[in-house]
User: What shape does this take?
Amino acid sequence: MPVVLLTPEELFHKPAKCVDMLREANFEIEYPTEPTLARGLCSEQETIEQLSVCDAVIAGGEWFTKDILAALPRLRVIVRMGVGYDRVDVVAASERGIPVTITPNSNFDAVAEHTFALIFSVAKSVVNFDRSMRAGQWQRELTSPLRKHTLGIFGLGRIGRAVAVRASAMGMKVIATEKYPDDTFVQRHAIQLVDLDVLLAESDYLSVHCPLNEETEGMFNKDLFAKMKPRSVFINTARGKIHVEADLIKALSNGHLRAAGLDVFEEEPPVANNPLFEMDNVVVTPHIGGEDTLSVERMGIEAAECIIKLHNGEWPAGAALNDELRDGWKWRR
Assistant: This one.
């Protein structure tokens, strides 16, 4: 009986439809003995030991490097619960004949909602008001409207499009930078496509929704922050390494940027004395944007469907990252 290891902590020992699906398909379910494996903090050897028990894995944020994959001869399938896969060496997985899939249809609405949770927290000073009232104060200051203001979206994929729809419904002007836009969607929602310089210069709120790769790592640095509209707001719910934290801190400290809302950080979890945590114009959350009760359930189902399809000889079209393995791939070597 093939074994599926479930590493995301939100799936641990809770009633889950994905577990029922896999068991009904005659898979055995295992959980890591190190519960924080999916945070990516285990050593290489610890990661190998935890993953060596399974034929397939529903993965969180653990690392799948070339060396780790080479030490896992039993592993046949990696399903990343979510859409980010920067911790998986997809090329190395392909070389070993291991399909890597994501769950692209399940959590984009959750991320879009969380993006606006951060935007609202900044615009309406929710956190600062809460703190002052708990301290016995009654400080009433004017807050910032969203309507009639411009939201710039860097990356108009599923998440970016979900953010755009919500922004339009609130009376915001939406502009976006996207290499491969969905022209029908753009026209339907009256989104203005612009180049990066225009996006930076005109956005009152700039929200990042692109993958982390060689092109985007460290992209939002001092040069781009300097080009952003004075007193604008930077929002990142994508990946922390897309922005340079030290440069963001400087832009916030000198007043060029009014505020930031961050769900992601260069290092996760960040150190306790991160200067961002001392800044009243920053709202932070622990990389939770894509995970609410509904999205976790749906991601689990989509992940289970990928594993079951592959075991049954059906390729998970639209979810696999290495389609070059499609022809002739079999569960058993």
